[in-house]
Structure formats: C-alpha cells, structure tokens
Amino acid sequence: MDIKHLNKIQDLFDESVKNNKVAGLNCVVFQNGKETGYWEAGFADIENKKKFSRDTICRLFSMSKPVTAVAAMILVEEGKLDLGEELGFYLPEFWGVKVCKNGEVENSSRNILIQDLMNMTSGYTYGAFWDGACKGEFDTSALINELNDDVANHKFNISTMEVARRLSKIPLSFEPGTNYSYGLSADIMGAVIEKVSGMKYSDFLNKKIFEPLKMNDTAFYVPKEKQNRFAMSYDRKESEGKYELNLFTAPNLGISGDMLQPPSFESGGAGLCSTINDYLKFAAMLVNYGELDGVRILQRKTVEYLSNAKLNNRLQECFDRNMEHFAGYTYANFMRVALNPGSCRAITEKGEFGWDGWLGPYVSIDLKNQLVIVMMMQRCGAGTNDITRKMKNIVYSSL
Question: 60: Cβ–Cβ under 8 A, 6 or more apart, which residues?
C-alpha cells in the first residue's frame, strides 16, 4: 500500500472540518492483519473543545446492523435459527400479518421469513415520508414518535420485545419477499435473538461478541463515567455553498440523545454506540474470516456467505430503484455487498461488504484484499457521504 498517497486522507479531513462539513471525524485502515494508518480531525464537542480521538464514543445508528447480522449468524451456525423459516415460528405474533394494498388492509398472501428480515424485504419500513404513504407507514411513524417521546421523557417503558409485538399489528407496506424497503427489520431481529437465545439482547451480544473481542466501549448506552468521551451530534445547514453546524440533542428512532441510561428498547437496527478501536476489532474479526487473536466468533464459510450473499434478480431491481446511491451494490444480511464494482460511486472490490449509519459512521470489509476501513463521524443525515467516498477512493487507489 502506498502510505504517502494514503496520507491524503488527513488533507481531506482537515479541509472538511475547516469548511464546516463535519465537526470531527476519524478513520483507521487495517490490512493483512495490521493497522496501516489512522487519521483524525476536528472536535467531538465543539463548545468544550474536545478533540475527536481514538477513544471518542460515537452513536452507531445503522452501523449497529452488521452486529445484529453477526449475532443472527451465530444462531444460524448453532442450528437454532433458520433463514428460511417463517418469523411466526419464533415470534407467534407474526402469524397472519396484514398488508396494505390499493388503499385497503388485507391478509398477506404469505408470512414473513427470517431471510426477509435480513434482506429488508419484510414489508416493514421506517415510516411515512410523503402524504401518499400507506397506513402501515403512518402507523410505523406513530410508533417511532412514541419511542422518541418515551426516551425523551426518560420513561423507558417500551422493550425490545414490545416493539416487535407492536410492529406485528401494523400492516406491511407490501407482500413479504416482493419488494425492498429499508426499515425496522433489524429491530425485529433483536427480538428474535432474545426469543431464540433466552437472553436479553444486550446480554447475548456481550457474551457472544463484545466480551470475547474485548469491545469494552460498545453498548446500548454510555455510563456516567464515560460521558466525557461521548461525541456530540451536529446538524448541518447549507446556504450558498457555506455550511453551519448546530448541536443536535433530540432522540431519533427511539435512541436517546444522551444515551445515559440503559434503554428498555435495545434497537438491533440503530441502538449501539462504540469507538473506532472497538469497531475495528469487530471488522478485523470478519476480514480474518471470523477469528481475531485466537477467538473465533463465526466460522470461515459463514463470513464467505456474508461476502457472497445477494438479492435475487427481481428484488435487485427493487433495491436499485429504492437505493440509487448504492449503485453497483446488492443487499443481504443487513449489509451492502459490492456486486458490480464498475457501477459503484467509489472505488471498491467485488464482494466488499459493510454498512453505514445515520450520523456517518462507516465500515468496509474486503476479504480479497484483506482490507478493513472504519470511519466515525456524528453529523445528522450523513450516511455514506461525499467525505466517505473521497476517503475510500484514496484508500483503494493506494493499493
């Protein structure tokens, strides 16, 4: 790897902070079993001048989903979870789900499969984003608003299993397995894992993933003694090419702004926080085919499956329409997978997989090149953004 070229990441980060594109961020590149480089810039807390650093704790939001995928695959390996089984077999509330069709609510023609959850083809969404949305999407938005109010008022009355139960009563946006829509499927999977394992979801993750990998700063909340390392979130406004950052403290998707208390709703889709060091351990385990420092989390063939999985041709067309910014990718097991690298909007390798989060954290796992990229930032609505793509282009053009 061309280290001199790789160091252009620092220039990119410094410029991004200088122009108020982001308050602060960091990135680590790991290849062939060792760290190749680390870069950081800006602030985790602008007001208090706390720099973004390796031990900064960040909200992962949807970068929680790869962790939920690994948790599910652990149970698949143990013969306790079947991707082809109907969801109702594990959570009986989901037998006989309803679906929205042509403005009416009807019985679904088939039940949701576990694989429908893993591939976001279940029919559950993240709510209503336009006036013409169906009833189920408005009902989902109402549930999300209730979750936000619950944590904003520090009540924490709604559990992981209760969220799944409530969702089972909401009509789907489409027949399971007929369309792709990003949504609350991973949150239902958290409840499935609780039911199958007989453990609270956080306890399962601690026992099976976090403690074995020594991910000591990864959890569903940030205790008081660690709050001084917790990054602030910022909303960005643009006007005539100039950017302004404002502190954002409101809850989102049932995740509290301060994450100070252990939640009742442990969101498999959005609830975790972590550091770049911790998440690197998780990603390094995957790029090493399920093992890190003598600790095996998944078997080799399972990791290969994660890198090779894809939607069928009909569902791929749906994904391409709904997730145009992920051109060149397919989707499976709560993660993107590079299918046609030449169509992707950043340089990558076929089979590269990972995901991002609402505030901009990002992970890329490339088995062929034995390469991991992890980036952290805390900017509202960031997802995979221009900084991410530029950073990734620098990394891949350094190979």
Answer: 270, 272, 273, 274, 279, 357, 361
The torsion of the CA quartet 135, 136, 139, 141, rounded to 10 degrees, works out to -110
Taking alpha carbons only, the member of 12, 33, 46, 50 closest to residue 280 is 33
Under DSSP, is residue 223 helix (H, G, I), strand (E, B) or coil?
A: coil
Q: How many CB atoms lie within 10 A of CB 305?
A: 16
Positive or negative, the CA dihedral 311, 312, 317, 322 is negative
Q: Is 226 helix (H, G, I), strand (E, B) or coil?
A: helix
Helix (H, G, I), strand (E, B) or coil at 94: helix
User: Is the pTM for the entire model greater than 0.85?
Assistant: yes
Q: What angle do CA 6, 8, 13 make, to 5 degrees?
A: 120
Residue 373 pairs with which residues in a beta bridge?
29, 364
- 3-state helix, strand and coil shares in percent for the chain, rounded to the nearest 5: 40, 20, 40
CA 185 centroid distance within chain: 12
Tens digits of pLDDT across the chain (399 residues):
999 999 999 999 999 999 999 999 999 999 999 999 999 999 999 999 999 999 999 999 999 999 999 999 999 999 999 999 999 999 999 999 999 999 999 999 999 999 999 999 999 999 999 999 999 999 999 999 999 999 999 999 999 999 999 999 999 999 999 999 999 999 999 999 999 999 999 999 999 999 999 999 999 999 999 999 999 999 999 988 899 999 999 999 999 999 999 999 999 999 999 999 999 999 999 999 999 999 999 999 999 999 999 999 999 999 999 999 999 999 999 999 999 999 999 999 999 999 999 999 999 999 999 999 999 999 999 999 999 999 999 999 999
Report the phi/psi class of residue 94: left, alpha or beta, with left for phi > 0 and alpha for psi in -120 to 50.
Answer: alpha
In angstroms, rounded to a whole number, what is the distance separating the alpha carbons of residues 193 and 204? 8
